[in-house]
Backbone:
């Protein structure tokens, strides 16, 4: 009787099912349409999983914090005003030990416009020294004869003809701001004109000025060493050229160049700084000097 009872208890134990998350994320990208579209225009998003093993994945889609019912790799939006929002995807795979999830993708912002003109700008910010290509689109198949670009309400470009493309070369941080476009066209012997909603354009330095952090009092460091960390933002487009880091004490270089943004050095009083170089882009920037005293 005792043996029978033991068997029944063991057989009712639940199977252990766990959920795990990968270290890589899904990739959500536009495959047709634009990130800003007129109402009635379709947009297609695709979710990709860069696992390198050709595994079979299912796909989860999110609009904001809400999970959608859609589970296919492709997500089609029909262009209703309610389709505006931020979309993300995530991969999920069923295994013997439970579900494995990827990280969520970078958000894709979709804006559905009910107006007559849209200023189309790249999703990625502009970079100092580069060119920003924009397009002033008008609803329907109207042939416009003039396009005007405004920044913060001030005219920047005026061009005649049917070309909707607008370019800002040699970007600087001063080009950052709110942009709109006005488009004019002729129809039935009348001239019509409309202006788009404004859109924020951001312009980033390819390489920001580095900031040196000196860490001396840390239980994880040996008593005679301290850690120098060179913080910066590197915004070059992929594939980005490599960055070299140099560390200095009293303007004298400490060791060789490194691809790491930190170094362990002898704990000594002095003025410390770091230099960052991107040789292929001919960029070089210094941090401010940071004093260290015992």
Residues:
């Amino acid at each position: 009787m005792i043996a029978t009872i033991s068997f029944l208890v063991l057989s009712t134990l639940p199977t252990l099912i766990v959920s795990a998350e990968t270290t890589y994320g899904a990739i959500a990208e536009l495959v047709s349409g634009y990130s800003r579209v007129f109402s009635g225009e379709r947009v297609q998003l695709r979710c990709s999983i860069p696992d390198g093993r050709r595994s079979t994945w299912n796909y989860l889609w999110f609009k904001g914090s809400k999970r959608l019912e859609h589970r296919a790799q492709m997500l089609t939006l029909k262009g209703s005003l309610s389709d505006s929002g931020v979309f993300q995807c995530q991969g999920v795979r069923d295994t013997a030990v439970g579900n494995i999830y990827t990280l969520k993708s970078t958000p894709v912002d979709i804006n559905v416009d009910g107006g007559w003109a849209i200023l189309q700008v790249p999703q990625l910010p502009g970079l100092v020294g580069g060119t920003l290509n924009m397009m002033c689109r008008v609803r329907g198949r109207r042939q416009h004869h003039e396009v005007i670009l405004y920044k913060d309400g001030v005219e920047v470009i005026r061009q005649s003809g049917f070309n909707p493309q607008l370019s800002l070369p040699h970007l600087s941080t001063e080009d950052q701001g709110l942009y709109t476009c006005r488009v004019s066209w002729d129809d039935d012997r009348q001239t019509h004109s409309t202006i788009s909603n404004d859109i924020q354009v951001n312009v980033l330095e390819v390489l920001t000025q580095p900031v040196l952090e000196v860490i001396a009092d840390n239980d994880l460091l040996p008593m005679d060493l301290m850690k120098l960390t060179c913080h910066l933002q590197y915004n070059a487009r992929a594939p980005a050229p490599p960055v070299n880091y140099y560390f200095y004490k009293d303007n004298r270089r400490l060791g060789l160049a490194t691809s790491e943004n930190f170094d362990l050095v002898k704990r000594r009083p002095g003025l410390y700084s770091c230099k960052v170089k991107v040789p292929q882009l001919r960029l070089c920037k210094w941090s401010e000097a940071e004093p260290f005293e015992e």
